[in-house]
Write a structure and sequence with these properties.
316 residues, three-stranded mixed β-sheet, 12 helices, Spore Coat Polysaccharide Biosynthesis Protein SpsA, Chain A
């Protein structure tokens, strides 16, 4: 079955300085010039472009001195939107690699408005990003509030993936998912994945994914996440969700689990990735959970930076 994507690289030279008075938080981090850029992967449709801009804004603010290559896999984002994205990344000194994929490959795969077909693309990333060795996948409904370098440099100990499980909050969900999928490991969240792409190319067979979807279509509750756990869960290195994939809905549960240590101050100092899991989303007025105001603050910053083209202010 055909699964290769059309890919183009877009590289930009650094231009200008950056100044945003309200972003003094960046000065809290030591300035460095890493030799190796961090490679990020996002897979989304046109309805999540705004959230991608918020994610990128949070990364830029809280990772001063870093260089990133953004790998974007999609099938329907307009060319002018890609160009705007490329220009913004270029002004930040980053680069963009865009890959388009044939959406008809997943015509028979279960999908919804909340879980579109693009969610499957991350599973095929090893066969799309053929020239890369490692990539960090991030869902678009994420804020990055501390540096990503420690995760990127992590020793993966021979595992194909590194991911966090949210089931440490309650073992009931863990047990249910083990029975439902016939697995013995924790149920890993697919929203943050550090991927060894060479190991993925050796292990992940696209036709096996398509066959599993076809055979288990009616059983898949969170389709891509179920596939990840059922087929590759034993190849996943477990990482701390409180640091690398904090479920923003569950502040009270984290506090109980840590005997009160993981309060808001601890989160702002230690948590790198805030993940707004589930149907409730912080860009909606109906959002009721604790970190909604923080997300809306980054939305405001993103609007300023993207609509005005103002990227001055952040140390390189």
């Amino acid at each position: 079955m055909k699964y290769r994507a059309a890919t183009r690289d877009i590289f930009f030279a650094e231009t200008g300085d950056i100044y945003i008075p309200s972003l003094a938080i960046a000065a809290d981090f030591p300035q460095s010039m890493p030799m190796e850029p961090i490679h990020l992967l996002v897979t989304l449709d046109s309805s999540y472009v705004m959230q991608l801009k918020v994610l990128l804004t949070s990364i830029r603010i809280n990772n001063p001195g870093e260089r990133f290559t953004l790998h974007l896999i999609h099938n329907d984002i307009a060319e002018d939107e890609i160009d705007r994205l490329g220009s913004w990344l270029g002004e930040a000194g980053w680069s963009l690699q865009e890959s388009t994929i044939d959406a008809s490959l997943f015509d028979s795969a279960p999908s919804t408005r909340q879980y579109p077909k693009e969610m499957y693309y991350r599973l095929l990333a090893p066969h799309i990003l053929m020239d890369e060795e490692r990539v960090l996948y991030l869902d678009p409904d994420i804020l990055v509030i501390n540096p990503l370098r420690p995760l990127w440099d992590m020793d993966m100990q021979g595992f194909m993936l590194a991911a966090a499980s949210h089931t440490g909050i309650t073992e009931l969900a863990n047990g249910v998912n083990r029975i439902r999928l016939g697995t013995e490991h924790d149920y890993y969240n697919s929203g943050v994945l550090l991927m060894d792409l060479q190991a993925g190319r050796e292990t992940i067979v696209p036709d096996e994914i398509f066959r599993y979807v076809h055979e288990h279509e009616k059983e898949l509750l969170l389709p891509d996440q179920d596939i990840l756990n059922a087929l590759y869960g034993s190849r996943i290195l477990s990482i701390d969700d409180a640091i690398w994939n904090y479920d923003a809905r569950n502040y009270t549960s984290y506090m109980m689990r840590s005997s009160g240590l993981s309060n808001e101050e601890w989160i702002m100092r230690n948590t790198a990735i805030l993940h707004f899991c589930g149907k409730a989303k912080p860009w909606k007025k109906s959002y009721i959970y604790r970190f909604g105001m923080l997300y809306r603050h980054y939305m405001q910053l993103a609007r300023r930076m993207w609509q005005t083209g103002m990227l001055t202010g952040l140390p390189r």
